[in-house]
């Protein structure tokens, strides 16, 4: 039995209504521990789910607060790219999550370091798990869908040329601090801020 035939919104909905079939599927695929996430969706979240691909739907079915995801990925043959995608969601939700986690500032970090797909996956996962219409989360998700990951405007060459910082540990540390500040400031940083970081 192929997981791709099972992990579809309509198929899962029908399975959940038939306890015998659901029990059988969970015997064959015990890692689908969170499959009941699909059982109480309002129509807007159902529409959102229907736009998602197999890997995202699979994430919803296997991610919980245990090592279930790791065991699933060990047991089944999934591409490295898809494994990484699932693990980014899993690792994010293994941290302590609250409403303040989903600020634009925090999500910019995910967007920059892990990419557009990760940002949208993490936000859509939250929307589905909350099972209520959260316009802030929806707007954030749409925002990341419609923009490209920016390129850090400050390079090692710039710091070496303008500020005469030699190659080495100090250069790497200054670049790291500048990058963190740039991400924190919604991908903006002024010359004055760079000067301040360099001179501290």
Structure description:
- The protein has 2 domains: 3-145, no CATH class; 156-199, no CATH class.
- It contains 13 helices and no strands.
- It has helices at residues 3-6, 9-17, 19-28, 43-50, 54-62, 68-75, 80-94, 104-114, 116-130, 135-145, 156-162, 169-184, 191-199.
- Helix 8 (104-114) crosses helix 9 (116-130).
- It is elongated, with a radius of gyration of 21 Å.
- The model has no long low-confidence stretch (mean pLDDT 91).
- How many runs of DSSP E, i.e. beta strands? 0
Biggest pleated sheet:
none
> Termini distance?
61 Å
Output the helix-strand order: HHHHHHHHHHHHH
The average pLDDT value, as a whole number, equals 91
β-strand percent reads under 5%
Shape: elongated
């Amino acid at each position: 039995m192929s997981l791709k035939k099972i992990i579809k919104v309509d198929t899962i909905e029908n399975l959940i209504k038939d306890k015998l079939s659901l029990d059988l599927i969970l015997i064959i695929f015990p890692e689908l521990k969170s499959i009941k996430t699909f059982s109480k969706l309002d129509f807007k979240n159902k529409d959102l789910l229907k736009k998602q691909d197999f890997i995202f739907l699979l994430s919803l079915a296997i991610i919980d607060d245990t090592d279930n995801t790791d065991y699933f990925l060990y047991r089944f043959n999934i591409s490295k790219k898809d494994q990484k995608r699932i693990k980014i969601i899993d690792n994010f939700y293994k941290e302590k999550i609250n409403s303040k986690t989903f600020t634009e500032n925090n999500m910019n970090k995910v967007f920059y370091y892990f990419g557009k797909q990760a940002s949208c996956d993490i936000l859509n996962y939250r929307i589905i798990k909350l099972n209520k219409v959260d316009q802030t989360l929806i707007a954030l998700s749409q925002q990341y869908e419609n923009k490209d990951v920016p390129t850090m405007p400050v390079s090692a060459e710039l710091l070496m040329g303008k500020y005469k910082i030699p190659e080495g540990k100090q250069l790497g540390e200054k670049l790291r601090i500048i990058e963190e500040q740039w991400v924190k400031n919604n991908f903006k940083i002024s010359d004055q801020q760079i000067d301040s970081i360099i001179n501290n």
